[in-house]
Description:
Protein name: WLM-domain-containing protein
Order of helices and strands: EEHEEEHHEHHEEEEHHEHH
Radius of gyration: 26 Å
Number of domains: 2
InterPro entries: Ubiquitin-like_domsf (IPR029071), WLM_dom (IPR013536)
GO molecular function, one term: proteasome binding
Strand content: 15-25%
Low-confidence stretches: 1-12, 268-294, 299-316, 343-351
Structural class: alpha+beta
Distance between the termini: 91 Å
Helix content: 25-40%
Number of strands: 11
Amino acid sequence: MATDMQEPTMSTDTQDLVSVTFTHHGQPHTFQFPTDATISDLSDDIADSLSIPPSNQKIMVSKIGLLKPPFKDPNLPITSIADKKIILMGSTADEASSIAEAAEHTSRRAIRRSRPMQKVQAYKSHDWKKEQEESQYTFLTLRPLSYLPNPSKSLQFLQRLKDDAGIKAAMRKHKFTVPLLTEMNPVEHTQSNHEGTTRTLGLNRNAGEVIELRLRTDAYDGYRDYKTIRKTLCHELAHNVHGPHDRNFWDLCKQIEKEVEGADWRSSGKTVGNDEVYDGNGEEDVDDHGGWTGGEFVLGASSARGAESTGNADTGGMSRREILARAAEERMKRLREQQQEGGGGQSSGSS
């Protein structure tokens, strides 16, 4: 008696999965996902399996570049990167904390060793009110970017800003408390277009919740001028009170700059020995167009072009920097209008 032989049914579960392999600290890891999974799903699994929070994740994908949460395209299909070389950079929360603590300890020790020995003064009184205010109105946390070279040096730079006599005096006077002062990655805040290259020097997020400063040069191999960065910090502190670059903002910004320089004897125009007098000359021209999170301090590629773009607008006695700011805002407005109209036409050489 003939019987029909049927092949056993096979599970199709494995056929509906895609494997993603990446390396972390030299060790390969392979995760499997449904074919409709996204880059966000990969980030969640990394957080669950390797205890690396999304804020610490940096995913380098060949031919695509650096991806990190929050992703520009959180719905990027996992299938689009499954066949590419993937490297995960990032530390667990415990590792990041220990690295930051060690770097801060090293920085403080280096600062103590670099300070000249001071003579002990008998019966020296403490200004307890001042010390209490300095501990309250300050930067509560300093955080360098641990994935960039020499994070301890960046931490030392941030510590110098925090300990700056002028910055401390201004923050006490205006009662500024900033939860986090950190550095920004230069490559993520540099944009080029037909008008040239702009470099964001500072960001103020949510009216003083986080302040980011551009400490490094574009090649990561050096650090920018301290006084320029300090002036950028004054600018961002003014955004704690005023978001847009209106008259109130510029008045406060100039006031903070004067207070910072006035409280720091090294910038007050006096000399000690052969030390140079800092009079503000030689600073970088700044093309500042504000920002969505409260304020951006942007270094423009051509200040002369910015000055020309003001046209016949009434300057109302504004400073050169404020004129450049208005010019940049006008350029951004025209660019948005061109994009809404379909991007027709090219900008003239003086725009």
